[in-house]
Amino acid sequence: MDDNKSWVQIKVKCDAKDIDTVSSVMGMVDNGLMIEDYSDVDLVLDGVYGDLIDESILNADRNAAAVSVFISEMKSPAESELYIKNRLEQLGVKFEIVHEGIREEDWADSWKQYYKPIKTGDRLVIVPVWEWEDYTPEEGEVIVLMDPGMAFGTGTHETTRLCAGFVEKYTTEYKAEKGTCTVLDVGCGSGILAIAASKVGADSCFACDIDPVAVRVAVENTELNETPNVKCAVSDLLRQVEKVDGGYNVVVANIVADIIIRLAPDVGAYLADDGVFIVSGIIEERANEVTDALTANGYKVVDDRRENGWYAAAVKKA
């Protein structure tokens, strides 16, 4: 690791049986994982290397495991932690998160000095609220002010940028073609995507998240952006989502591969017949698995994008 940067270790403690799931989720934040799993130690105790095993490992709980990821302070460790927390909760995994390398009082704010305006589409620019006074928009830019607090969604993560670009494209298209556009954001985090949709012309947006903290932050960001047509609510995926007549023109899920696969059979009931379902939060290695699940449920890929090992797609009913 670069000694000129500060790094934060985010460690997730879990049951050994869940180690693969936890590793998969944390691998979506960064591929450089440190895994602590002692469930197989007994297999080598009688071997030629048994005498060389450290006593602390011999005494470790065989049923417990941990996965760590190291995040530069420049990339918002707090955002990465919330991403991990929300996804593991949605997958029903029992876990505990601890972090090292930074003072607790600095945890949520240390990265802000590195968070600068980010262009995510043809017109969309995400501007941190503390940078707004010093920012001069260029002609035609659509500004989304963002104070993510402890919710996922700053625009710095590739998954959010990929999604925001699709949201801008398809919301703009539906608005131009039909004169109206409704948007559903499942797993909204800070509310960044629903607010972006509103800013580029959506008439109404419903944004939901399983995390009440994220919903509170999303509400605050809708007020900051003066987008009262974005309604935010707590929902376990689609369970508490409001349906609209004819379905939503755009449904977006910037979550993880497993959750998107789980959504595939049910999202059609919320999507307009000619609507677009935007999916992101997918590592490239699992892209085919996700698109196969969507295809099996009657969708076809009409657009996709990749960035730094991440995959996002726009699909429509076949």
Give a brief rundown of this model.
By secondary structure, this protein is an alpha/beta fold. It has two domains: 7-106, Alpha-Beta Plaits, CATH 3.30.70.120; 115-317, Rossmann fold.
Biggest sheet layout: 7 strands, mixed
User: Which fold does the CATH topology of the largest domain refer to?
Assistant: Rossmann fold
> What is the rounded distance between the termini?
46 Å
Roughly what fraction of the amino acids lie in strands? 25-35%
What's the CATH architecture of the largest domain?
Answer: 3-Layer(aba) Sandwich
Task: State the shape.
Answer: globular
The number of distinct structural domains comes to 2
Question: How many strands in all?
Answer: 14
Kindly provide the radius of gyration, computed on alpha-carbon positions and rounded to a whole number of angstroms: 21 Å
Secondary structure tally, helices: 8
Helix-strand string? EHEHEHEEEEHEHEHEEHEHEE
Extract low-pLDDT stretches: 47-54
Largest sheet, spatial ordering of strands:
10-9-8-11-12-14-13
What's the overall average pLDDT, rounded? 84
Question: What portion of residues is helical?
Answer: 25-40%
CATH superfamily grouping of the largest domain: Vaccinia Virus protein VP39
Q: Structural class, please?
A: alpha/beta
CATH top level assignment of the largest domain? Alpha Beta
